[in-house]
Amino acid sequence: MSRPTNRLPAPGSIAALALVLLAAPGASPQGERPAGAAARAPVAAAQAPMPPAPVAAAPALTPPAPIGVAVSLSQPVATALQRQTRRKQVEREVAAGGRAVVLRTSSADINVVTTTADAVRIVIDLEYWSNDEDWMTAVEQEFDVQLDERPGSISLQTTSMPDLGSQSWLRRLVGGRSVSYELDVTLTVPAGTPLQIEDRYGEVAVIGIGGPVEVSNTSGGVEVAGAVGDVVIDNRYGDVTARDIEGALELTATSGGLTVENVSGDVSLTNSYGDVSVSGVGGAARVQVTSGAVVAERIEGRAEISSSYAGVEARSIGGPLVVDVSSGDVTVRSARNGVDMRSSYGSIIVEDVTGDLVSRGTSTAGAVRRVSGSVRMENSYGDLLLEQIGGAVTVDNQSGGVTIDGAGGDTRITTSYAAVRALRISGRLQVDGTSAGVYAEDVSGVVDVRTSYDGVTLRGAGGAISIVNQSGPVVVERLSGDALTARHTIETSYADVAFDFPAQAPAPAFLLEATYGRIVSDFEGSRQERGSRQVVEGQGGAAGASINVTVRSGNITLRRR
């Protein structure tokens, strides 16, 4: 990895002319060496600490040449500027003896391969350059790898690059010391060797190791594949790929994407400022992400996923699924052991859940389809659609609409300032609304509706009906089943009520009362009028239904249909 620092001044500048004294001591400004003068090496300067990411320093300011003076480089200076890149290779080999291997280095790209031999071998290829000959010489003489053998481990550590101290004023004038180097490390170990790697500013690849792996890296990517045993990875500022692992995986990262595939054990992933993709986990999966999206699929065990400022997609989850998302969309498809989720400021799609669904959301809109168990949802400021729910349904959605098409149990809906549609409900339906219109069709059980400032329409009820509405009309049609013999009560104001009773059923008993309105009935009954109030009452059969309707400032129509 190249690590440049300051660049040399451009030809034609006064700073470049000053380089004559530093880089070409054999030439005076007139091209001759003064009598008795000897060449001297420039005074060394301290090497600046390397930043987290290699960044070239700004070039030194170049003052303009005086008017009428032409400045050019002499041949010795031009030659001094053209430093040659040098290379050095370091090799070490030691008997493995079944010991763990630890490698510590910096600014190196690392590649780990396996061998059938009982040996650990490291090969380091170093390529380096500097405008400081003393630094170049120090690298050649001092750079090495240190070996520490113990009964249970083999430690390998590269030496640091040379530090030659502070620089002279003349060196700083012409731009300072500039260095650049690349380290490529190839580590060969027997298959199954436990391995630990520590690196900075480099890429790490461990492929087919066949043993446990631990990697710590900063400012570089990591790839681990084919490990047998637990894998632990800690990485910063780079992408990570971990795949085909026979064991557990623990991965912590910052500012990089994570890709995890085919892990036989449990997986724990923590990341920030990067997306995560995890698939093919034989155990449980725990994923925590800040400012990154998550895609998780084919998780056999329990899956816990949390994310912020990005979405989550979970598919084919075998164990219980727990999702917590802030400011992002959520998509769940095929969860075989129930779902518990929390979301905000995004959409949700949940499909094909075996078991129960619990969802809590804020400013969330979405759809839920094909849940075998019960559904309980809390939400606000977004519309919800539920289809083909096998069990009971409870929805509390403030300032958002609710549509339910197919529920296998009792259904309760609480909402405000939006419409409710409930279709094909196998059980009781209860709606508590404020400024919410209600449409219900094919409800097998009791219907209980409380709402205001909008209409209520009920078609195909199979049980007793209780409707209390304010400033909204009410329509009841196509009663069946127990509704033909049940007690029905309706109240509203500033709107009309139309109630259809099946002609083939026994005539119901009824009491109809309207204030500032009129009453029309297809059934015989007695009529009373007292000022603005009308009352019509009829006596039905002993086994028939009873209907009580009260309207203020509205009309009542009771029809035989």
Q: How does this structure look, described?
A:
With 561 residues, the protein is mainly β. The chain contains four helices and 45 strands. The protein has a 45-stranded mixed sheet that branches.
Summarize this structure as a short list of keywords or feature phrases.
mainly beta; 4 helices; 561 residues; 45-stranded mixed sheet
Concise account of the structure shown:
The protein is mainly beta and 561 residues long. 6% of the residues lie in helices and 53% in strands.
Total number of strands:
45
Q: Strand pairing plus helix content: what structural class?
A: mainly beta
Shape descriptor: elongated
Distance between the termini: 86 Å
Share of residues in strands: over 45%
The helix tally amounts to: 4
Radius of gyration: 40 Å
Low-confidence stretches: 1-82
Helical fraction: under 10%
Outline the biggest β-sheet. 45 strands, mixed
Residue-averaged pLDDT: 87
Layout: helices, strands, pairs:
Blueprint (H helix, E strand, L loop, with lengths): L13 H10 L51 H7 L4 E10 L4 E5 L3 E8 L3 E12 L2 H10 L2 E5 L3 E6 L10 H5 L5 E12 L4 E6 L3 E4 L5 E6 L3 E4 L5 E6 L3 E6 L3 E6 L3 E6 L3 E6 L3 E6 L3 E6 L3 E6 L3 E6 L3 E6 L3 E6 L3 E6 L3 E15 L3 E15 L3 E6 L3 E6 L3 E6 L3 E6 L3 E6 L3 E6 L3 E6 L3 E6 L3 E6 L3 E6 L3 E6 L3 E4 L9 E7 L3 E5 L7 E7 L3 E3 L4 E5 L2 E6 L7 E7 L3 E5 L1
Parallel strand pairs: 2-6, 2-8, 3-7, 3-9, 8-10, 9-11, 10-12, 11-13, 12-14, 13-15, 14-16, 15-17, 16-18, 17-19, 18-20, 19-21, 20-22, 21-23, 22-24, 23-24, 24-25, 25-26, 25-27, 26-28, 27-29, 28-30, 29-31, 30-32, 31-33, 32-34, 33-35, 34-36, 35-37, 36-38, 37-39, 38-44, 39-45, 40-44, 41-45
Antiparallel strand pairs: 1-4, 4-7, 5-6, 40-43, 42-43
